[in-house]
């Protein structure tokens, strides 16, 4: 029914497409040059600023510097949420996905390891080089959120939080290092960008434009599946009437909904800037219009969720908005997964979360 409504919506609105379809090569170049490279550069810039902000907090503890450090964290969360579905290239190598964000973490491994380090004041956790050799659960945004917003974080504003701040600074340095590496790799004229934009039959990674386009298209479905299966469904809970608000990513910092909004916004921007609507041609305008319709639905649903997550799940209106996001992602799975792939003659049997 939802797909029927989306199709009806498409017919009732001005078609997105007015010009001749672009080429596969133009889609690949647009994806890299207009979305991926700028997105990862923004992430690296935000991470560098966060690193500096937390370093200033450690040097001169105060409420003001704590606020700056926390704001820096939030900026990185938003920047990362906008590109985290792009597993093609640097993010998908060298355990960077897990190093940036160890999630899902159903057993609470990150929390346990961070709390153990805090209790023991493990000096190795305050050295980025040593921390890089430890569990990835201790290195990313999840661990850093607890240090900045979790129990005892108020100590960061005074001298009593010296160890905690040094630990946070160590994580921020690693995140800065990882994001700078990814930015450099995307910017390297002999690197991943060239491999994607100029595939060769004898290449070790990307041999044809169709192969590259399939990888880029799979990124869209990876994003919608991850939002549903790793972000929203855990909050709703597996048993009826038993939501789990503390299963929400970034609930301590209040960034659950802003991160979700950035997830959807990133997917929508990628879909448009990579010129997927154009490459599908006018006959498939209903797919692009349907996707645009669903992205707008997601934005409206997220606007309803205004309370902290423990309060939001207790409010029927906000809880229904969360449930509605599941419906939206399933519709997007079909539109930007099956329908887009069929329109472009791509393989439709991949499972995005498996990385295929």
TrEMBL record:
<dbReference type="InterPro" id="IPR018976">
    <property type="entry name" value="Imelysin-like"/>
</dbReference>
<feature type="domain" description="Imelysin-like">
    <location>
        <begin position="36"/>
        <end position="325"/>
    </location>
</feature>
<protein>
    <submittedName>
        <fullName>Peptidase M75, Imelysin</fullName>
    </submittedName>
</protein>
<keyword id="KW-0732">Signal</keyword>
<dbReference type="InterPro" id="IPR034984">
    <property type="entry name" value="Imelysin-like_IPPA"/>
</dbReference>
<dbReference type="InterPro" id="IPR038352">
    <property type="entry name" value="Imelysin_sf"/>
</dbReference>
<dbReference type="GO" id="GO:0030313">
    <property type="term" value="C:cell envelope"/>
</dbReference>
<dbReference type="Pfam" id="PF09375">
    <property type="entry name" value="Peptidase_M75"/>
</dbReference>
């Amino acid at each position: 029914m939802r797909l029927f409504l989306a199709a009806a919506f498409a017919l009732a609105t001005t078609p997105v497409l007015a010009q001749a379809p672009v080429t596969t090569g133009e889609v690949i170049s647009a994806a890299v040059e207009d979305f991926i490279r700028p997105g990862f550069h923004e992430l690296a810039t935000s991470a560098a600023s966060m690193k500096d902000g937390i370093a200033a907090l450690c040097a001169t503890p105060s409420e003001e510097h704590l606020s700056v450090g926390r704001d820096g964290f939030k900026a990185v969360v938003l920047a990362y949420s906008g590109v985290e579905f792009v597993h093609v290239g640097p993010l998908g190598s060298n355990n960077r996905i897990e190093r940036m964000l160890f999630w899902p973490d159903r057993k609470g491994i990150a929390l346990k390891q961070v709390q153990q380090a805090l209790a023991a004041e493990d000096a190795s956790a305050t050295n980025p080089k040593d921390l890089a050799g430890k569990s990835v659960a201790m290195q990313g945004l999840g661990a850093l959120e607890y240090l900045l917003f979790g129990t005892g974080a108020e100590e960061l504003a005074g001298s009593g939080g010296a160890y905690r701040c040094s630990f946070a600074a160590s994580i921020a340095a690693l995140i800065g290092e990882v994001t700078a590496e990814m930015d450099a790799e995307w910017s390297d004229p002999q690197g991943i960008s060239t491999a994607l934009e100029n595939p060769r039959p004898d290449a070790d990674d990307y041999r044809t434009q169709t192969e590259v386009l399939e990888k880029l298209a799979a990124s869209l479905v990876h994003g919608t599946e991850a939002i549903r299966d790793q972000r929203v469904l855990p909050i709703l809970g597996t048993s009826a009437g038993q939501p789990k608000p503390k299963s929400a990513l970034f609930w301590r910092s209040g960034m659950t909904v802003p991160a979700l909004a950035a997830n959807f916004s990133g997917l929508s921007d990628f879909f448009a800037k990579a010129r997927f609507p154009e490459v599908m041609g006018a006959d498939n305008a209903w797919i692009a219009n349907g996707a645009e319709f669903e992205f707008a639905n997601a934005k409206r649903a997220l606007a309803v969720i205004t309370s902290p997550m423990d309060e939001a799940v207790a409010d029927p209106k906000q809880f229904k908005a969360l449930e509605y996001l599941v419906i939206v992602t399933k519709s997007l799975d079909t539109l930007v997964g099956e329908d887009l792939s069929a329109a472009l003659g791509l393989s439709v049997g991949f499972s995005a979360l498996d990385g295929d």
